[in-house]
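Form 12-C: Joint structure prediction
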Amino acid sequence: MRNIIVTLLFLMPVAAFAQNGRVIIDLPPSLAAKAAESTDVNLDGTMLRLASKFLSGDDDAGVRDMVSKLDGIYVRSYEFDEDGAYDPALIDGVRRQIGPEWKRIVTVRSKMRENTEIYTLPRGDSIAGLVVIAAEPRELTIVNIVGAVDLDKLASLEGNFGIPRMSKHE
Amino acid sequence: MNLESELNVALQRVDPPEGFAERVMESVRDGSRRPAQAVRHTMRRALAAAALIAAMLGGWGVHETLRARNELLTAMRIASHTVAQAQKQVNRR
Amino acid sequence: MHPKGRFSRIELSMTALAESAADDILGRARDGDHDAFAALIEEFQSTVYGIAFHFFADRAIAEELAQDVFLQLYRSLSAIQSRTHLAHWLRQVASRKCIDAVRKRAPRRESLDDVELSVPPNTPDPFLTRRLQKRVAKLPDLQRLILTLRYQEDLGPSEIGRTLGMPENTVKSYLHRALTALRKEFA
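Section 2 - Result
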């Protein structure tokens, strides 16, 4: 009984997070070490507002507008040289945090290409959180956005970014 | 398929956007780099903004704030691409 | 006189003339002739821009880097001895700037399905070319750079090694890895 209570107490902060749209993307550091390229972004609300002040020009206006409604963006993205370099079970830790209050709005299963899941946390007429899990044989991407996300607007921003493409130097 | 000859095609030399040589010569004449055609802001402006905001907030360095900006754009690019790809896959069905 | 021999000699003469004219342009650029320097830019811009573009798959970044290379050339003209030296210098500086650009920043990755591509006109199979370019863009940095020097500039492993400051066998190893990865997908 004590063990159950301890486990519940341990899980409560995580559960509380998930209710606010935030999920902990807890993946082992060895994954990045194994990857040919990796991205690790952790921007809470404060850093988001700071960073968005640097977005200048018309093309960044869409991003500025979107970011002004957000409370956090967290990304883990890995690319590997070979198939099967990561254990798909690692993603279960993220899925476990997505409780019944979340809605899975997209499921794409493909043997050859990406398996994609998109979850949203509805809050009234808008969304309080977004989780995207995209798993390919050689790529794994998990995105968590906290705050009022407009999915169509987010998708429409594709291709509009002008920062250097950087990869792990070999 | 002959991979080597395909690579010769795929990795051919690429011409820069029109006016490249003129932009370089302008920079040669006045000593500063001209923004590329597609670049939407200059590094000098970004650094000035970074310095101002760093002063306002206190404690945030220029490097840190620029890094946050780059991380934000990276995150948005990944997020928008992933969502857009999922939409396309759904629409294909 | 063998006909072929005569034509070979004419070809060599024309090459020698072209080299001499090119060295003359270089000489004038070194003396401060801006028109001559602009002519050098026009001659080598697709080499430099191409290296940067195939590395970053981003036109804006490629142009910024290419501009930096030519500005550096302008400051270093007095050290350039010949047209051949110039070509080697430009490849070397462009390559090093590409590597330096990624070394200065923390490792990160972006999804690469939106890489900028440049499919040459009259390509027999533009879809294959596009797929190949996308796959090359996903290779690790050094593999991609070495592949570009090999197939864009037609350099051999030893020349690539001299350009990048690495042993020939190391270059061969990177080339082998890159081609193996590509053959897996395109065989």
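Section 3 - Comments
Chain B touches chain C through 39 residues (CB under 8 Å). The mean pLDDT of chain B is 70.
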